[in-house]
Amino acid sequence: MRGSGVIELIWDNHHLVKLERSLWLDIMKFQQFVQPDLIDQHHIDASTAVRNVVNLGRIREREAVLKHDLVARLQEFNHLAGHQRHHLGMTSADIVENTYSIRIRESLIALGLNLRPSVKQWMRSQPIRGVRGPVGTDVDQYELLGSAEAVEGLNWHLAETYGFHFVALAPAQTLPRSLDMSLGFILAQEFYEMADIRVMLAALAQSLAHAPWLEGDVASSVVRRYCWPKMFEICYIALGGDDARNPTVESGEKSGSEESPQQGGEETTLVDAIDGDTLQGLPAILQGETREYPKWAGP
Asked: 47-61, 136-150, 206-220: which has the highest mean pLDDT?
């Protein structure tokens, strides 16, 4: 599946839930590797068995009570797996910011934009946030894993698993917003000569003022939920997609099927299509905010 259909899939709640669970599982496995007494194998087996069992209706019911979307998805995963080992030493931003960055990367690859030199260079410099804890200091993971080297190993492990070359050193709300600005500028330049695309980009900017703001929203969450799915839909049209000239992706984090049992269907896979690039021309706003991690040899 390519193009518009994949964009809808990537920004749909169903894919988000599965991606979050994959991230929780990858972190659990690393924590168990470093500290075997922290997480038992049966916890990982139980989580793996239910990772693709997604019921969005039940999650929404939990969210209505909890008033927190990520906590609702976490509690649903805990309920299905029968334990509470998924989020040790973490804060919401450790999941939200990482899955956001991964979905942007998936979207660029799905549309083939990763082959364009300017986008390719941006992807080469795009960091994953990693696991930083409530205030971005790593102290919670340090207390769990026992050393700064193990914490670096965890973040390097996530970078390698999801196809990133860098881990961000900035706390939760700092780096991703600068990345939004730089990628938006690059995409606008790529398609600027197309008059109808300029009109659509202007309409998107105007529509942000009337976007479906939800209780508790801040500007960054609206950008994640509303602007990027529509921006990638615009790129799809610019690349010769559907004849329609209006983006059709609904707000990603409030869409999706009601019932999504475990399926064996087509999955969106992040393919690392970045090879041999240099970091020349790295935006100044990113300099000093990322660090390339050496491979961790283990405890």
From this structure: 47-61
